[in-house]
């Protein structure tokens, strides 16, 4: 498809934001940087012990500034093209343009590229020279770097991080090769246009770094280095295409979220490359003292993961494998706190040990265990991938989390129910509370999933899992018909962020429409308007569920105070504080579109749908919903819903599907055949035929 002037997926500006934190990021699964910055980060490369663990700053040759010293005050423009996965800076001078383009290669994920193009615009024949300004110094406060011999014209450094995350633990190694940066580039008098490509290859081993650099050189020599990247990025955007007919600001926000989130996920072409999780500020951020130091939170599992699961289940699986790989660290956390099983850290890095600098969060914000398991449950219901659980460590993780919850509960003789005491709920304005509604509800869901999965895998189900799931207390006020946030919560108490409203979605905790409404009404006015960006998306989903379309739209509108111009970089808090490039908030926003507007709900029996749009949205097209080995294109308007299976898995074979409306009408979903029906509630399920 052609994209041009006024395109909602291309963000342009004639000046950069005054706050450099709000510059856009360019990343792939392994490398990331913020444009014009002199450091980059490599996935899984942390330095510092325990609470001091942070992404190791790797010196970056990519933070170049293009200048034309002979032209006073030339016209400049900047563009982030979400269709191409590139950032560009263009200088327009009399008779020529000079463009610096930066991208993280999406086929060669150990490679980042700066390309500079000078294009003559007139018939002159004099040489044209531009300057490259660089602050690059091959040193790092986090790495013990040593220069090595040049390789194929590239400079080479390598070294280890200075301090391991845990005593005696591994110190990751970084190998980096880069094209020497010339101070000047000249277009000869006889040339009309020329491109220079400066490569930076970073890997954990010398062989991989050299292989990637050589492959980049070969593609550059053939004139196809950028084309190879564009092809890989375009394929990802096609697989994850979401198109809205609605206000331009909403469409721009959607494309921005897709760009930053898809930049963060594992590459399809690199199944052997371990994935190291998604932190709130993404891979480009997370140096010491910023963006939670690059740690992985519940933001990955609760806020980002469901979107990736629907659009790209292979990447979703890799995210879960990060949690499997860190299971032993989670077991140690539980053991040190005096409990059984595994306790995933509130903040995680490479080992699964707790790396939160403040002890209270790691000790009390234990709902993260249920958040992790809910992602595994959603994946299982959507894919039926038993191999992950039978062969690749998934069952051991599910079992360990269930064991933790059982050991963390205490029996109340007075109430004849199980309690979980002394926790911090998602609302971090309160700590040391008993029976957080969200924490206890997500623990119940964990135990129910563990029992259901055990039966599916033909494993014995411990009786205590089912007993404790039945008898755990989830606070409920019978008089007011709402869920108090915890034992002793008083209506009107301020709340930091989405908490009890998460019981309705994503937890799908059983409740009537009246209770769902009461929870929304109770907590919306007392939730801090300056709280984190993902909050309002969950209120929007709740109101969409109740078909209160204008109330949903007003909640969604609140998200825009967290989206900065001109590059749609999200900030965690509307005053600009907190993490930047806040993927957690973007994940919540995208869930409004993928789960709120569609009404999609992932259940054991089917994928429910119940579409609802605010008035200013007329159509939604999602090109590639993944469900039970099928890829479905779904187009929804107020009047009509159209579905088509566009692709089916052969190994393992996809389950044949059908759409069923609440009215009882059934529509077989066969590959290559589009079916339409009036927009109404229903579900997609395995076809009984």
From TrEMBL:
Purpose of the protein: Catalyzes the hydrolysis of glucose from the disaccharide unit linked to hydroxylysine residues of collagen and collagen-like proteins.
Its top-level enzyme class, in one word, is hydrolase
Q: Which GO terms of the molecular function aspect are on file?
A: protein-glucosylgalactosylhydroxylysine glucosidase activity
Q: List the residue ranges of the region (Disordered).
A: 669-689
Q: What is the lineage of its organism?
A: Eukaryota, Metazoa, Chordata, Craniata, Vertebrata
What keywords are assigned to this protein?
Answer: Glycosidase, Hydrolase
Which Pfam families does the protein's record reference? Answer: Glyco_hydro_65C, Glyco_hydro_65m
Task: Name its GO BP terms in alphabetical order.
Answer: carbohydrate metabolic process
Q: Which InterPro entries match?
A: 6-hairpin_glycosidase_sf (IPR008928), 6hp_glycosidase-like_sf (IPR012341), Glyco_hydro_65_C (IPR005194), Glyco_hydro_65_M (IPR005195)
Protein name (database record):
Protein-glucosylgalactosylhydroxylysine glucosidase
Q: Which domain of life is it from?
A: Eukaryota
Could you tell me which residue ranges the Glycoside hydrolase family 65 central catalytic domain spans? 284-490
Q: Does the keyword Hydrolase apply?
A: yes
Give GO cellular component annotations, separated by semicolons. Answer: cytosol
Where in this chain does the record put each Glycoside hydrolase family 65 C-terminal domain?
A: 601-647
EC number of this enzyme: 3.2.1.107
Swiss-Prot/TrEMBL catalytic activity? (5R)-5-O-[alpha-D-glucosyl-(1->2)-beta-D-galactosyl]-5-hydroxy-L-lysyl-[collagen] + H2O = (5R)-5-O-(beta-D-galactosyl)-5-hydroxy-L-lysyl-[collagen] + D-glucose
The family database entries (SUPFAM superfamilies) matched by this protein are listed as: Six-hairpin glycosidases
The UniProt family comment states: Belongs to the glycosyl hydrolase 65 family.
């Amino acid at each position: 498809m052609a994209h041009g002037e006024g395109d909602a997926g291309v963000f342009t500006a004639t000046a950069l934001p005054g706050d450099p934190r709000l510059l856009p990021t360019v990343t792939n699964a392994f490398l990331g940087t913020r444009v014009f910055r002199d450091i980059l980060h490599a996935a899984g490369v942390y330095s510092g012990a325990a609470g001091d663990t942070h992404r190791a700053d790797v010196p970056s040759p990519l933070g170049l500034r293009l200048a034309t010293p002979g032209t006073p005050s030339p016209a400049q423009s900047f563009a982030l093209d979400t269709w191409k996965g590139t950032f560009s800076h263009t200088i327009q001078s009399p008779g020529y343009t000079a463009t610096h383009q930066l991208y993280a290669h999406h086929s060669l994920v150990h490679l980042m590229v700066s390309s500079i193009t000078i294009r003559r615009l007139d018939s002159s024949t004099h040489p044209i020279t531009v300057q490259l300004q660089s602050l690059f110094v091959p040193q790092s406060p986090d790495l013990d770097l040593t220069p090595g011999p040049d390789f194929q014209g590239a400079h080479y450094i390598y070294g280890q991080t200075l301090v391991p995350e845990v005593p005696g633990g591994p110190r990751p190694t970084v190998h980096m090769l880069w094209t020497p940066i010339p101070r000047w580039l000249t277009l000869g008098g006889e040339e009309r246009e020329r491109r220079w490509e400066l490569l930076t290859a970073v890997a954990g081993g010398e062989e991989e770094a050299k292989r990637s650099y050589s492959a980049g050189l070969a593609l550059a020599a053939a004139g196809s280095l950028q084309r190879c990247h564009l092809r890989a990025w375009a394929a990802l955007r096609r697989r994850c295409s979401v198109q809205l007919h609605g206000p331009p600001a909403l469409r721009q926000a959607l494309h921005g979220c897709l760009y930053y989130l898809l930049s963060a996920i594992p590459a399809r072409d690199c199944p052997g490359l371990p994935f190291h999780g998604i932190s709130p500020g993404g891979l480009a951020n997370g140096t010491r003292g910023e963006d939670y130091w690059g740690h992985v939170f519940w933001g990955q599992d609760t806020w980002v993961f469901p979107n990736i699961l629907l659009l790209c289940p292979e990447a979703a699986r890799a995210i879960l494998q990060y949690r499997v790989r860190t299971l032993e660290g989670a077991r140690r956390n539980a053991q040190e706190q005096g409990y059984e099983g595994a306790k995933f850290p509130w903040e995680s890095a490479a080992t699964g040990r707790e790396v939160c600098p403040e002890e209270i969060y790691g000790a009390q914000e234990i709902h993260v265990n249920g958040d992790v398991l809910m992602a595994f449950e959603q994946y299982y219901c959507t894919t039926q991938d038993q191999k992950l659980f039978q062969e690749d460590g998934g069952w051991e993780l599910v079992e360990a989390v269930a064991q933790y919850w059982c050991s963390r509960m205490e029996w109340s003789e007075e109430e004849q129910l199980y309690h979980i005491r002394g926790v911090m709920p998602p609302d971090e304005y309160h700590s040391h509370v008993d029976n957080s509604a969200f924490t206890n509800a997500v623990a119940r869901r964990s135990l129910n999933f563990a029992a259901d999965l055990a039966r599916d895998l033909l494993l014995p189900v411990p009786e205590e899992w089912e007993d404790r799931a039945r008898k755990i207390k989830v606070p409920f006020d019978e008089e007011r018909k709402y869920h108090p946030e915890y034992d002793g919560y008083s209506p009107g108490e301020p709340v930091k962020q989405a908490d009890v409203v998460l019981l309705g979605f994503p937890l799908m905790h059983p409740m009537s429409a009246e209770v769902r409404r009461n929870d929304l009404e109770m907590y919306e006015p007392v939730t801090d308007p300056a709280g984190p960006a993902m909050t309002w998306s969950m209120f929007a989903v709740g109101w969409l569920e109740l078909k209160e379309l204008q109330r949903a739209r007003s909640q969604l509108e609140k998200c825009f105070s967290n989206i900065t111009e001109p590059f749609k970089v999200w900030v965690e808090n509307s005053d600009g504080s907190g993490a930047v490039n806040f993927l957690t908030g973007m994940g919540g926003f995208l869930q409004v579109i993928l789960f709120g507007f569609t009404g999609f709900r992932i259940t054991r029996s089917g994928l429910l749908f119940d579409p609802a749009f605010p008035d200013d949205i007329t159509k939604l097209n999602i090109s590639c919903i993944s469900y039970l080995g099928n890829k479905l294109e779904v187009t929804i308007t107020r009047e009509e819903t159209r579905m088509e299976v566009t692709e089916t898995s052969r190994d393992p074979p996809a389950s044949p599907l059908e759409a069923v409306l609440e009215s009882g009408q059934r529509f077989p979903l066969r590959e290559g055949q589009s079916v339409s029906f009036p927009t109404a509630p229903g579900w997609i399920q395995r076809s009984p035929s």
